[in-house]
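Q: Structure tokens for this one, please.
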Amino acid sequence: MTEQPPVVPPAPPRTHEPHEPPEPALMPRWVPVLIGVVLVFMALLAVFTGSRFRETSLVGMVKPHKPSRPLTSAAPPGEPEAGASLMFPGESGDNAPVAHPPVAGASRAVVTGGKNGIAASVRLSARRGMMTHVVPGDALVYVNDVAVGQADQFNTENEIYDFPAPGSYTVRLVAPGYRDRQFVITVAEDAKPEIAKLDVKLEKQ
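A: Here is the predicted structure, written as tokens:
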């Protein structure tokens, strides 16, 4: 009788083990500490730079201007003193025109003449200042022989010329190639108009 080979049981099916991701590399402990130190240093630098900027900026260096002498009449806030020239260097009021004695009489035109020709001046009155609408607009405005600016600098109610004190002022309008015009404005507290308005078109020579 022949021996049969032993029966080998079949091998169990092979199961695939799930793929495990590799363990992450650990960050050295000194890296977070270094990042924190850098952030703290940047914050301190920002605070220091901001304080230095406030000390050295124009806002910190500019000081409000105090008038060198008391005001003699009211002027709009932020504007040069009353009577101050808008031409260099008159914003401090140092070259303000000096008032002449008041001219008596009502507002009217006065014509004077002689061998050198005829000159006309208009007498006006005001309590505060004057406003100029002049053609050409770049005509120079002289108040008692002091150049105070160009005519278009005083052509709105917010930018009128404020006379420095009560009295009489001779206003001349001068432009190259045009005939001069002259006005006499008497400033007084009892004057009817607050502002003398000069609407002038200069004549060409």
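A few notes: DSSP finds two helices and nine strands in the chain. The first helix runs from residue 30 to 56.
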